[in-house]
Amino acid sequence: MNTDFTNIFPKEITDEFLFALEKYPLFLENLSILPETFYNKWSETPRRSIVEKYWKPNTRLDWKWSLSFPLFSLLEKYLDNINSPIIIGFSGLPGSGKSTLGFWINSVAEELNLDIKVISLDDYYLPGIDMDIAMNGNPWNVPRGYPGSHDLDLLNQSLDTFLQCGVIKYPTFDKSLRDGKGDRSGWAEIKSKVLILEGWFVGCVPISQLFDLEYLSDDKFNLSLTQIEKEYRNYIQVSLLEYCKIWNKFNKIWHLKSSSFDNTILWKTQQEEEMIKLKGSGLKDKNLTDFIRMIQVSIPQDTFSHMNSDTTIEINQDRRIINLYSSNYLF
Question: For residue 121, how many other CB atoms are within 10 A of its CB?
Fold first, then answer.
């Protein structure tokens, strides 16, 4: 790709990029995106009038041009080049912006009449009573969240059905129910050609040798794991083996990588505060602190640093994009 993209993208856009500018054309090239066509499509008035309606206030240009537009363009390419339904995995720590992006993709795709849908791994949490049993005795006293809290039989069945016929029926989970412990709130059914499954540990795989957990350099993160936390992580690693059957159904995996695991302390706090404002219930005080601790230690942090993703978008604490990588895509 020899096009000088600086002659295509206005300075008002490129000035918002915190990553090295030379990475951007390579990133687009690896996604099989032509910069000039890409810029013109997302700048034309009819499309802009649609996409702008669903942004949160003050959404930055780097989030639009380096993540949302490239991902959506890739999804459109899939629609033009595939014959059977496919699933894309999308991971990112709690509060990183996955749900916000998912809402935007769903809304824009619906207005453009495109067969693209986003659902959450969270919707496959176990029903309330079953969840309480499964979570009983965990060292963080959290009501849900880590591998082992989902109905994997149902998820496997749902995704297999989708891959066969493009229809998926799935439960909806409301985290505000039961004083923030959450419960199923109903069922939904959608038909699509491209499905995104998003979740905070989507794509994570267990350490190949469980005894290696004892030697991981988590001390550099100042986690000071207790003995019961170490023992419980072994259990979670075994549970992750079952989740790998889900990941194997994915065509590609996108990873919204945090520059620091500690970023999720702020992000998760903001997320729960917003839920309390919107629905009157959510995690707070010790319940919130315990949940954040679970996020930080239940899965080794090095696992997220070496995620086997096809595309990685790295963000800082302000959710600004500071780096991006993508492998070559074939359709």
Answer: 22
